Every structure is written in structure tokens, then in C-alpha cells.
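User: quick one, fold this
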Amino acid sequence: MRKNISSLLQRGNLTPKERYLLIIQNDVIRQTTGKEPLTEADIKGLESWQAQTNEEAREWNKYNEGWKLSGRAGIEAEFIYAETKAEHYRKNILNIELATYPFYRERLNALKALKKIKIVDIKEAIEITNKQREQKLKDGIDFDYAIYQLAFESLSDKLRKDILILDEEAEYEPSYLNDEETIADLLNGKDELTKEAKEKYAELVADRSYNKFAKEYQLWGSFASLPIMDIAKKWAKDKGIKPRKKDYEWLEKIKGNIKRKGLKKLEKTIKQKKDEEWLLEEKIKEILEDYARDNKTTIKKILKETLLKWLEEGLPYPPLVISEDKKTYSGDTKLPHNELFKEWLKAKKKAKETLQKLIDKGELKVEETGQDRTITGKSLYSFKGDLKFIKEFKGRVDKYDANAGFIYADDDPDHKGENIDRELLIAEKEKDGKPSIVSMFGMSIRKIERQFDRHFFTETKKDGETYLEFKSEGIKEAFKTARQSLIDGYAKLLAFQEIQKKLSGIYKIDLTFLITPKVEQVSEFIDQHNLYLENALEDTAGFGVGFGLYKKPLKTREDLFINKDKIALNINTTEEYGKKFNEILGDEYKF
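Assistant:
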């Protein structure tokens, strides 16, 4: 540039526009790099030039006036940025509470749990524990479950270890082995299921996916060795269904939260699986629900039809009754699976005979309700024999169980009419049943409560959803005003950035160097606004069960996020300045 300028100056044939642009370009380069392409003599030569004609004077003045207006636009943009920045920081106290809200919510839930401890005197404690004891004796043990427990404890250590390799919960949870018996009955001595048996098997498996208490389909269970999730994934594979765009966006958000919180182990776990595989497992239930709704079908029907198709190819997992293998996911069994299953059936048969003899001799008693048979709790408690499962029953009867759910909360307005779990605390209490202010528990609870008084936000519940609410209309308006300030400020700064881009083409140098950092800064303010709100609603302090990562999110009554991609530049600003620049620069500036 230096060589070209010297050459032009020596020739003396620069137009007024070329002279003015060289001066501007020199100033911009000096501001952005600290260097000056022009010497003092060059600048003096350019500035001391005198117009020879009215046309030359008009041309010089044209670009000079345009530059002055550009400066006024820059000053206005500076004011808008300062105002937007101030509004953002004025909202900072709200942002801090949003940022810490998940941690507050986690501790608040712990406090609520403490407050649910039932305060009793010694007489009430005895009455409640006796009531629970009587209920346990009344419930007794289901006859079939007693058979299962006796069969399991009668096994040799070798057989017991083998079964626990097949199912680590088998000692107390009978569903796995019961499912295997069901499949064995369906096979009826054959190696393959009949068409009728396949229908029955598929129906049973599909039914297992429905949780009647939660009233929804869940894919994390299994029927014997067949995970429900595997059926869902096979359906997706057969249909060519893959995670959606929004699922990948969700995953990126998850990864970002995990990285910010420094959860290295979880980050490593996610990296071990391909994004598509991981996402499919996480989102398959939602995908199934959408598909079922759009195609007027049900998840149960989808799972059943998928399994029936799978069964035409053969059993997905060989059942124990016909499996000669020893390998399992958790290790190798000592006996082949089919031989192990035979030993289990023998143990069950013997256990049933043993219990029936005890019943026939009157040492145990049963009550029959329809097809159900229950060994009475009183006969179990008075039994003198040495059976482990009966000893464990006696221990449960004599031990108070806070999770038994036998206390009816008619005195609790939050749980009226419900069967709830309740720990007991023998302590001084007020007439309303609350812990006395002078009791150690009551005093401690009140002190903790005072620490959990949120200034700006609270929670309300409606129709099974929990909403994050503002504590007052004033706080709500302040938050919304600050939010709108970010939107308006960003839109106006985008407009000024566009103006400077057009002027850059006229003055032949990038003039956005001052406005672009301000646009980027306000963009970061918007990202922070969304992040704080997102963290509060998603409850990222409490990673949930399995790989779901989050507890059930909170909701807001209205959309408080800012969609940056939908913010358009402020058209009033571009038109207002566009007219002014057009008056000065003519058609060179088009708006």
C-alpha cells in the first residue's frame, strides 16, 4: 500500500474520493493493528489538498459527511450496547438464583422429606408400630412365593451361585425364573414354539412393557432373558428409524452440561457408545409414542407384532429349558442351563411338598381367597422349625418398617387418603402435631427452613406438572423487561452491524471492527440467559435414574427463553439511517 500511495501522490492524479478513502483506511488500520501505512508527509499531502472545482469539493464533502454520520451511528450503537449490558447485569441477581435453583431444589426436597417424619409421643409410637405389626401378621406370605423362597434356600451353594449368575436378584425376586417356567410350559417339551404359543408368548412380553401403576409403557424391563428394549430397537432397525435432529440437539446439550460439571466418568461412558446407538436407547420410547399416535396404533401392538416377526426367525434368546450353554452376560455357570433349570424345578417341587406337609400337620395354616392361597402370618410367627424364609418373616414382623406404607395419612392435607411411608420421631410436639419450637428437631427444621427462602422464584403444581413461578408480578415484569431488552438491543446492534457492512463496501475497508464485538457480547448475554433458565428447569444438579440424566423438568407458564436465530435486525434503524446515508452518498448506499 505504501508504494502505491507514494506513486499516486507523485502523479498528483488522485480523485477526491481516493484521497478521502486513503485517509480513512489509514485511520482504521492504525486502530485495528497499531500500524500506519501512510507517513506524516503522506497524510499532510492528502489533507492539504485544495479542490479545484465545485465538483471536486462536492465529492470530498460527500464522503466526509458520510463518515461523520457513520460516527454518529457508532455513538448511538455504543449507547444501545451500554444500555443492554446494564439491563443484563441488573438481572444478574435473578440469574444467580436460577443458576443455583437445581441445588436449592435438591436440598428443598430433602427438607420436605424431613418434615414428613411423623412426630409422635411414646404412646402413639407404640400404637403405630403395633398396628404395622398386626398388618404384617395379617398379610402373611403368598403360598407360591413361600414355595419359591423355600426352594431357593434349599439349593446347594453351587446351584445357588449358578442361579445368581443368571439373575443376581433371583434370591428374592421370582419373576425371571417364573418367566422361564412360562416359556418352558409354552414349548411343552419341544424345541420350537407353535403358532399359538408364539401368540401367547408375544402377548405376555408386550403386557410386561406396560406399568399399570405409572399407566405408561416402559422399555427397561424384560421377560426372562429378553429385554423389552431389544424388541423396541429391532422395530426401529426394521423400520429404518433413527434418532431425529432434535434428539442430536438434546444430546449436545447433555454433553455440554456434563462437561461443564466435570463429570468425567459419565462423559467417558457416553463416548463409549456411538451417538446414534446411545440416542436411540434414550429416545426410543418417545419415538415409539410419536409413531403410535401418528399411525393410530399402540406401543403394545407394535412390540407384539415385532416380536412375532422375530419369533419366525427363531427364539431371540434360548430359554433355559433348551439351552445347553453355560455362558451368560455375567459369567459362566457350572452346569449347562437346561440341567440347572431341571434342578430348580426339582427344588420347587420338593419345597411345595414340604410346605403342604406342614399345612396338613397343622404347623402352618393357609387362607384361601379365590385362587390365591396365603400362609397366615400368625402360623408363620409361631412356627418352631428352622426355615430361613420364616425366620426372615419373623424379623420383618418385629422390625418397624418406615417403607411399609401402612400408615393412613388422614391427618396430612398433602397426602389425605393415601397410603404413605413414614418414619417416626418421638419428640415434643404442638397441638397441631408439628414439632415443638423448643424441641431440638423443631428448632433445627425452622433454622434450615429460613435458609431456603427463595427471593424471586417459587413452585406451583397443577395437573401433575410442576411450574417455576415468579414470587410477584413485580419480579415477573422486571425479568421480562430485561429479557426484552436483550432482544431489542441485539436486533438494533444487528442493524448497526449491517449498516457498517454496507459502508465497508463504500469506504473499501472493514468498518465492522467496533460493532461486531458488541454484537457477539450481547449474543453471549442471550446464551447465558437461556443457560440459567435451562439449568433451573432441567434440574441438572440431580442426575436421574439410568441414563435419563434429568429428573422430570419444571415448566413455565409462558416461554421465557430467547430464540436468537429468530431475532431479525431492527428494520426501523436500518431505514432511518438508510435514508440519511442515501441522501449523502446517493445510490452508493442502497437500503
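User: anything notable?
Assistant: The chain has four domains: 2-50, 55-117+440-591, 141-192+327-375, 194-314.
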